[in-house]
Design a protein that fits this description.
Elements lengths: L15 H83 L10
Length: 108
Protein backbone atom coordinates (compact mmCIF):
# COMPACT_ATOMS: atom_id res chain seq x y z
CA UNK A 1 0.00 0.00 0.00
CA UNK A 2 1.19 3.45 -0.76
CA UNK A 3 0.26 6.37 1.33
CA UNK A 4 -0.89 9.43 -0.59
CA UNK A 5 1.92 11.55 0.78
CA UNK A 6 4.68 9.24 -0.56
CA UNK A 7 6.46 10.32 -3.69
CA UNK A 8 6.86 7.86 -6.52
CA UNK A 9 10.40 7.18 -7.64
CA UNK A 10 11.30 8.98 -10.83
CA UNK A 11 10.95 6.95 -14.02
CA UNK A 12 14.20 6.03 -15.65
CA UNK A 13 14.50 5.87 -19.36
CA UNK A 14 16.88 3.32 -20.79
CA UNK A 15 18.93 4.13 -23.75
CA UNK A 16 18.75 1.59 -26.61
CA UNK A 17 22.13 0.07 -25.75
CA UNK A 18 21.06 -0.64 -22.16
CA UNK A 19 17.78 -2.09 -23.43
CA UNK A 20 19.59 -4.46 -25.81
CA UNK A 21 22.05 -5.42 -23.10
CA UNK A 22 19.21 -6.23 -20.69
CA UNK A 23 17.41 -8.27 -23.38
CA UNK A 24 20.61 -10.18 -24.15
CA UNK A 25 21.09 -10.95 -20.45
CA UNK A 26 17.49 -12.16 -20.14
CA UNK A 27 17.65 -14.18 -23.35
CA UNK A 28 19.62 -17.20 -21.96
CA UNK A 29 17.29 -17.30 -18.98
CA UNK A 30 14.33 -17.13 -21.33
CA UNK A 31 15.79 -19.91 -23.49
CA UNK A 32 16.45 -22.03 -20.40
CA UNK A 33 12.88 -21.46 -19.25
CA UNK A 34 11.56 -22.50 -22.66
CA UNK A 35 13.70 -25.67 -22.57
CA UNK A 36 12.35 -26.53 -19.11
CA UNK A 37 8.77 -25.92 -20.25
CA UNK A 38 9.35 -28.08 -23.33
CA UNK A 39 10.81 -30.81 -21.11
CA UNK A 40 7.74 -30.65 -18.88
CA UNK A 41 5.47 -30.89 -21.90
CA UNK A 42 7.43 -33.86 -23.24
CA UNK A 43 7.24 -35.54 -19.83
CA UNK A 44 3.49 -34.91 -19.73
CA UNK A 45 3.16 -36.36 -23.23
CA UNK A 46 5.16 -39.46 -22.23
CA UNK A 47 2.94 -39.91 -19.16
CA UNK A 48 -0.21 -39.59 -21.25
CA UNK A 49 1.21 -42.07 -23.79
CA UNK A 50 1.92 -44.61 -21.06
CA UNK A 51 -1.55 -44.13 -19.64
CA UNK A 52 -3.10 -44.58 -23.09
CA UNK A 53 -1.03 -47.74 -23.66
CA UNK A 54 -2.23 -49.15 -20.32
CA UNK A 55 -5.85 -48.34 -21.15
CA UNK A 56 -5.49 -49.98 -24.57
CA UNK A 57 -4.04 -53.13 -22.99
CA UNK A 58 -6.88 -53.26 -20.43
CA UNK A 59 -9.43 -52.73 -23.20
CA UNK A 60 -7.92 -55.59 -25.22
CA UNK A 61 -7.97 -57.96 -22.22
CA UNK A 62 -11.57 -57.05 -21.39
CA UNK A 63 -12.54 -57.58 -25.03
CA UNK A 64 -11.00 -61.05 -25.02
CA UNK A 65 -12.75 -61.94 -21.76
CA UNK A 66 -16.06 -60.69 -23.11
CA UNK A 67 -15.58 -62.66 -26.34
CA UNK A 68 -14.92 -65.88 -24.37
CA UNK A 69 -17.91 -65.30 -22.12
CA UNK A 70 -20.20 -64.62 -25.07
CA UNK A 71 -18.88 -67.73 -26.86
CA UNK A 72 -19.69 -69.90 -23.82
CA UNK A 73 -23.15 -68.35 -23.47
CA UNK A 74 -23.79 -68.97 -27.17
CA UNK A 75 -22.58 -72.58 -26.89
CA UNK A 76 -24.74 -73.14 -23.80
CA UNK A 77 -27.80 -71.80 -25.63
CA UNK A 78 -27.10 -74.08 -28.60
CA UNK A 79 -26.80 -77.11 -26.29
CA UNK A 80 -30.07 -76.23 -24.57
CA UNK A 81 -31.84 -75.93 -27.95
CA UNK A 82 -30.43 -79.30 -29.10
CA UNK A 83 -31.50 -80.99 -25.85
CA UNK A 84 -35.01 -79.52 -26.08
CA UNK A 85 -35.35 -80.69 -29.70
CA UNK A 86 -34.14 -84.20 -28.76
CA UNK A 87 -36.51 -84.32 -25.80
CA UNK A 88 -39.42 -83.25 -28.01
CA UNK A 89 -38.48 -85.89 -30.59
CA UNK A 90 -38.43 -88.59 -27.90
CA UNK A 91 -41.79 -87.45 -26.47
CA UNK A 92 -43.39 -87.38 -29.94
CA UNK A 93 -41.94 -90.83 -30.71
CA UNK A 94 -43.24 -92.26 -27.44
CA UNK A 95 -46.68 -90.72 -27.92
CA UNK A 96 -46.88 -92.06 -31.47
CA UNK A 97 -45.70 -95.54 -30.49
CA UNK A 98 -47.70 -96.11 -27.36
CA UNK A 99 -50.86 -94.15 -28.10
CA UNK A 100 -53.98 -96.27 -28.36
CA UNK A 101 -52.36 -99.36 -26.83
CA UNK A 102 -49.92 -99.94 -29.68
CA UNK A 103 -46.34 -100.87 -29.07
CA UNK A 104 -43.85 -99.91 -31.82
CA UNK A 105 -41.10 -102.11 -30.51
CA UNK A 106 -43.01 -105.43 -30.77
CA UNK A 107 -42.67 -107.44 -33.90
CA UNK A 108 -45.92 -108.79 -35.24
Amino acid sequence: LRLPCQKLPPLRRENPAQHQLRRAALSPAHVALQVLERGERIELLVDKTDELRNHAHMFQKQGQQLRKRMWWENMRMKLIVVLVVLLLAVVIFLLACFAGGQNCTKKH
